[in-house]
Automatic annotation (TrEMBL):
PROSITE patterns assigned to the protein according to its UniProt record, in alphabetical order: TPR
Keyword flag Zinc: no
Family under the similarity heading: Belongs to the APC3/CDC27 family.
Species, as recorded: Adineta steineri
PANTHER family assigned: CELL DIVISION CYCLE 16,23,27, CELL DIVISION CYCLE PROTEIN 27 HOMOLOG
UniProt-recorded name of the protein: Cell division cycle protein 27 homolog
Keywords: TPR repeat
InterPro entries reported for this sequence: ARM-like, ARM-type_fold, PBS_lyase_HEAT, TPR-like_helical_dom_sf, TPR_rpt
């Protein structure tokens, strides 16, 4: 059974999803008398769930549980291996049921995409369906809690808190509160106090909720949501003074990220935050935050990057952080570096990774290389590139040379030709962009013989021809390479936008670079004028 399932898994992982599902269903039919056929049902559930067929997946997993129980003669007769299988499948069922209850029957998750379809149920039928899903989730959570082995205490706590959330959502507040209070006593996480307070609030036990919120604020004065609920509490009591103060604190603490340790709640910082959130944000960075080199100022800059302020504001914040990091040493340098590393690891946007990686590369931050090496093959999204090759070139670590060359010579295959999935459409063209960027990044290592060889070979490959000519031209200053780029332009073809950006960054190195840029600009203007005439 294991060998057959493994072969079918290979088919599924190759992208031939429909064939794999058909094969696993055939295996189930042919192995109905096999005591391990539950493994095939479990596998079928996983496939169907990944394909967004959640109801069918649930049915397969329920069949797997039933077969497990029937074969053993009941849960109490499970051996250790059977118990682990039963627990894992039950937890998956609980989580899927809970998610379906939250999202409704018209939502499905296919690989990395969320799909929406109109529900075929009436509003009342939909609500009843959600209620049944929540009840089923609670059932499966409860049935495994007492069966989790004693040595897996962390797993048991995690499942109990998931159960509490399912109880809360389904309106079983008293049971949920009991679990949240136990969880707080176990690990002291103030989140459990907030959830317990929320349960009391939902039950209209407002005074009890307020008491719990005060306990929470004493435990963690930065817990933003506690201030928001307190503001609502005082608003309902018509105490506008208290409501306004709690609202002010909520707005402050909900903006300041948890990784900040030097931004305290005081009048100066509140006013500074108000300026950052206004149309004077860029001016604030260029003056107040640039002139103030304290850790508080550095954390404000990192917070701006964390919240992904688009365009000039975010770019300036990263620029100041990079300059500050380059100029610093010792503990101060490590402080700035750790903030930027945190932005990469806990990012809210790919743009944040791009900015933080570039800033750390400018700092020549040693710990960055391993992060970039891991991110390089993932940098395939053509709409939201991370520009990892640029960061590797900027970092200047010679360990990047084989990584960049491998990416050029062995391009990442974004989609299997036999795949029946259309989920990778955002990656279309991403591989080509990445290869060109890798060629341009090699300019930082142009003194390496292998790099020269790769670039010279690259001029014979259409996809990277321009990029290789550009790097060779800038790095060697040999006329023949400039002539090749000029020929591309005189033939009426503008240069690739990435090549143009590379030349612009090196415009001070040669008059020939400036001439190429002028030729390209003139050609762009000519084409635009022609397009305007054709439009008229």
């Amino acid at each position: 059974m294991e060998t057959k399932i493994q072969k079918i898994n290979e088919i599924f992982q190759s992208g031939r999803h429909k064939q794999a599902i058909t094969d696993i269903q055939t295996l189930i039919e042919e192995s109905s008398a096999d005591n391990e056929v539950f493994k095939a049902y479990n596998c079928l559930g996983q496939y169907l769930n990944l394909m967004g067929q959640h109801n069918e997946a649930v049915e397969a997993w329920i069949n797997a549980l039933k077969l497990l129980e029937d074969n053993a003669g009941g849960v109490e007769k499970f051996n250790e291996g059977q118990l682990v299988e039963w627990i894992n499948i039950s937890i998956v069922l609980a989580r899927i049921m809970y998610r379906q209850g939250r999202e409704g029957s018209g939502v499905s998750h296919k690989f990395n995409s969320v799909c929406y379809t109109a529900s075929k149920m009436s509003e009342s039928e939909e609500e009843e369906w959600k209620k049944e899903r929540f009840q089923a989730a609670v059932k499966y959570y409860k049935q495994v809690i007492d069966k989790i082995p004693q040595g897996a205490s962390e797993t048991k706590i995690k499942i109990r808190t998931e159960l509490a959330q399912a109880l809360f959502t389904s309106g079983n507040f008293d049971e949920a509160v009991q679990i949240y209070e136990e969880a707080f006593n176990n690990d002291g996480d103030p989140t459990w106090l907030y959830k317990a307070a929320d349960c009391s609030w939902q039950q209209e036990k407002k005074e009890q909720a307020y008491t719990r919120l005060q306990q929470l604020i004493t435990t963690d004065p930065t817990f933003a949501d506690a201030y928001q609920l307190c503001a609502t509490y005082f608003t309902e009591k018509n105490d506008t003074t208290q409501a306004d103060e709690y609202t002010r604190r909520y707005k402050f603490y909900s903006w300041v990220p948890k990784f900040c340790r030097h931004i305290e709640y005081n009048e100066d910082n509140v006013l500074l935050l108000e300026t950052i959130q206004s149309d004077k944000a860029l001016e604030c960075i260029e003056t107040t935050l640039t002139e103030d080199t304290s850790k508080r100022s550095t954390e404000f800059l990192a917070s701006i990057c964390y919240h992904h302020y688009h365009g000039a504001v975010e770019n300036k914040a990263f620029q100041v952080l990079e300059q500050r990091g380059i100029a610093s040493e010792g503990d101060e340098r490590e402080f700035i570096g750790s903030l930027l590393m945190h932005l990469i690891k806990k990012h809210q946007s790919i743009c944040t990774i791009k900015g933080a990686a570039s800033a750390l590369a400018g700092m020549k931050y040693d710990e960055l290389f391993d992060i970039l090496a891991n991110l390089l093959p993932q940098d395939l999204n053509i709409c939201f590139p991370m520009h990892i090759p640029n960061a590797l070139g900027k970092l200047g670590d010679r360990r990047a040379i084989p990584l960049l060359i491998k990416m050029i010579e062995e391009p990442t295959d974004t989609q299997n030709d036999n795949s029946d999935s259309s989920d990778d459409f955002l990656l279309s063209g991403g591989s080509s962009r990445l290869i060109v960027e890798c060629c341009l990044a090699l300019s930082s290592f142009s003194d390496d013989e292998k790099v020269k060889e790769v670039l010279l070979n690259g001029i014979n490959k259409e996809e990277i021809r321009e990029a290789c000519f550009a790097v060779l031209a800038v790095c060697t200053e040999e006329k023949k390479y400039f002539d090749e780029l000029e020929k591309i332009l005189t033939d009426g073809n503008t240069l690739d936008y990435m090549v143009i950006e590379y030349l612009q960054n090196n415009v001070n190195k040669s008059q020939q670079v400036e001439n190429l840029l002028k030729l390209n600009e003139a050609l762009l203007i000519k084409k635009q004028q022609k397009d305007n005439v054709d439009t008229d």
